């Protein structure tokens, strides 16, 4: 699949939530959903209410859906749940998953010791990185991905300026800002992120939608 096709198949559901439509429908951190398209594979980064929302997960779960998440979140959801930790690799529904870390370096909302998650996954030949709730961490420098979803709001996660440094280190073909315009952060954070990366990394700001 081309990157242009891949971007057209990405639906930002608000906050850190995304649905990627491909040969497998992948949903990440669904929260306050207005549309309930079933997902084949559901990835949950950590157990905060705006990332592991049992009612939203239930609405998109079908009989053969698989949920991949950390031990904390697994206690809150039902179904075919696979518990993973940073460093794990697995293939689910034809999607290759590499489980990474997500944590704060200069604040205490997401301690490294909690073992909360980021995900690299390959779908239809495109490698995606969902950073979860995190600061710019050393592990990001080792990534090789095509599309990176990065938080930009500050407060609980990276600021837009810190996310710029993360994007420069990761060097994805496309970076997509997230974690704004819901609980914390605004469209201005996404626009600053895009402006500061102009000429270095292509940034796509998605409209919240279906």
Strand content: 25-35%
| N-to-C span | 21 Å
Give me the strand/helix succession: HEEEEHEHEEEEEEHEHE
Biggest sheet layout:
7 strands, mixed
**Model regions low in confidence, pLDDT < 50 over at least 5 residues:** none
Widest beta sheet: strand line-up: 7-8-9-10-11-12-13
| Class per helix and strand makeup | alpha/beta
In CATH, the homologous superfamily goes by the name Ribonuclease Z/Hydroxyacylglutathione hydrolase-like
Count of alpha and pi helical runs: 5
What is the CATH top level name? Alpha Beta
Count of domain modules = 1
Account of the 3D structure:
The structure is a single chain. The protein is an alpha/beta fold and 210 residues long. Helix content is 18%, strand content 31%. The radius of gyration is 15 Å and the shape is globular.
């Amino acid at each position: 699949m081309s990157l242009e096709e891949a971007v057209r198949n990405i639906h930002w559901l608000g906050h850190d939530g995304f649905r990627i439509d491909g040969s497998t429908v992948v949903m990440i951190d669904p929260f306050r959903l207005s549309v309930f398209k079933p997902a084949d594979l559901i990835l949950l980064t950590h157990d905060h209410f705006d990332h592991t929302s049992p009612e939203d997960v239930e609405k998109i779960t079908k009989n053969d859906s698989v949920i991949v998440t950390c031990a904390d979140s697994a206690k809150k959801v039902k179904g075919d749940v696979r518990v993973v930790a940073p460093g794990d690799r697995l293939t689910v529904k034809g999607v290759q998953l590499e489980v990474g870390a997500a944590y704060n370096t200069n604040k205490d909302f997401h301690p490294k010791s909690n073992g909360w998650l980021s995900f690299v996954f390959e779908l239809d030949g495109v490698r995606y990185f969902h950073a979860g709730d995190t600061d710019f961490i050393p592990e990001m420098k080792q990534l090789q991905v095509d599309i990176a979803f990065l938080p930009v709001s500050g407060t609980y996660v990276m600021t837009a300026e810190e996310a710029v440094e993360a994007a420069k280190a990761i060097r994805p073909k496309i970076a997509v800002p997230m974690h704004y315009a819901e609980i914390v952060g605004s469209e201005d954070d996404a626009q600053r992120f895009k402006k500061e990366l102009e000429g270095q990394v292509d940034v796509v700001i998605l409209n919240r939608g279906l």
